[in-house]
Amino acid sequence: MKALIILFLFVLLPEMFLAQHYESFATEDGRISYQTFGTGEPLLIINGGPGMNSHGFAALAKILSESNKSIIYDQRGTGRSKLKEPGTSTLSLELMLDDIEALREHLDFEQWIILGHSFGGMLAYAYAAKYPHRVKAMIQSHSGGMDLEITDSFDILSRLDQTERDSLTYYSTRISLGDTSREMALKRARFLAAAYLYDKSLAPRIAERLTQGNNLINTILWNDLARIGFDVTEEMSRFSKPVLILTGKNEVAPVHIAEKAHATLPDSKLVVMPRCGHYGWLERPDIYLREVKDFLKSNSV
User: Fold this and answer.
1) Residues 259-277, buried b or exposed e (16+ Cβ, 10 A)?
2) What are phi and psi of 53, to 5 degrees?
3) Which residues belong to any copy of the AB hydrolase-1 domain (predicted)?
4) Superfamily, domain 2-154+214-299
5) Mean pLDDT over the full length of the chain
6) Residue-wise pLDDT tens digits, 104-144
7) The model's pTM
8) What single string gives the DSSP state of each residue in 29-95?
9) C-alpha span between 221 and 152 (Å, rounded)
């Protein structure tokens, strides 16, 4: 069951995908595809996963493009980003950071603001640790944190009632016994989705996305993070740029992870949203979007 929890720990925005022109550039082992919205100070939005594409973040990018040039991209091997031979030699944290920096260079930005959601928050921390001079400011949205504490510090089953737990276990067992049908995956996802939300009526909106992750990429990247002992706390204690940290009071990722980040970062603001799970823009757009827009306004030219 723990593998199931980790696999779907960081799902991405369950909004309707907005049709938009894709662009791409070549890497040594494939291509990275991306989309841009609007004009102004560049804002890179890094989606969660790992193993998820960026399609679900187009709606958020569109909203934030009212003031900033918003960029989303499909991480290597996901969506429209191509990878010649997915495996341990082509999937690692270091290579994912190289992709982000290559995207910045391709777009010819001196600096940009980065917004990382969930697992994307971990990528954002790692990128800021490696390229602090390229980050003008950072937004951590329901982040997985600066280290690997997240993998052991929550119990997703405790956020479900007994009926939901029994149903999740039943459908997970069916899948493990060989039923790999889309119907079975979607049934499991509908119960799993409820754990990420305060308002469980929103579960159908994200269940579909929970079925679309790449399990191989997910497993390889989590293993890589464990192999390297991912922890950028020391680097972030020296990161002097402004940081906005947003999390839900009823978050699947424990609030203390955000509180620890706030205590570590020299120039940070922590916003804990009441009556909110893992998706602030869905459950508390009144707080989430206001805080993000105000932060962007304060840190954009």
Assistant:
1) ebbbebbeebebbbbeebb
2) -85, 180
3) 42-285
4) Alpha/Beta hydrolase fold, catalytic domain (3.40.50.1820)
5) 90
6) 999 999 999 999 999 999 999 999 999 999 999 999 999 99
7) 0.91
8) TEEEEEEEESSSSEEEEE---SS--SGGGHHHHHHHTTTSEEEEEPPTTSTT-EESS-STTT--HHH
9) 17
